[in-house]
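Chain A, query sequence.
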Amino acid sequence: MITNELNDADFTEQSEPFRLFAEWLADAERSEPNDPNAVALATVDAEGMPNVRMVLLKGVDERGFVFYSNFESTKGREILATMKAAMCFHWKSLRRQVRVRGPVEKVSAAEADAYFASRPRGSRIGAWASKQSRPLESRFALEKAVDDYTAKFAIGEIHRPEYWSGLRIVPETIEFWHDRPFRLHDRVIFSREDGGAWSKTRLYP
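Chain A, predicted structure.
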């Protein structure tokens, strides 16, 4: 049974944020009507202006939070220029939020290949056909590109484009937020430096 009541023990008994995140994500998978792994991803451009968009979390473990992208897209280029990013999960049905900040690293080619191979065939063709974030003259041009790559990959496996891979945020901070009455919310932030041990601090709401 999922409850929105979160008592102090939920934080004080948990000294490792990835375990707590896994519990919250599992709750979201049972309660959210669509895409419980959806997350707002924030980056910054060369002029220092922020950008944010929704992506899907595709992996999480003690190494960090993984998503996949076309590296030639706006988010891909911005991340590769700074190798830093932030995420914000918000699960409305649970009244919970998690924020993640830290440096970014590329996943291994083996990880990227394995995930790409697991995608539906149409999504793999789409990764080849879409020049993500660049101007598109018409819907017909996109559909023609899809047709061309469908014909090209009519036989055999569809290999991963070199410009398409995964990125992992290696968190320096992970903040957990839970709604409470009268805006007296629960907030706890886990922090670490250089991959060391996590420290935990309760914050005013």
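The two ends are 26 Å apart (CA to CA). Confidence is low (pLDDT under 50) at residues 1-9.
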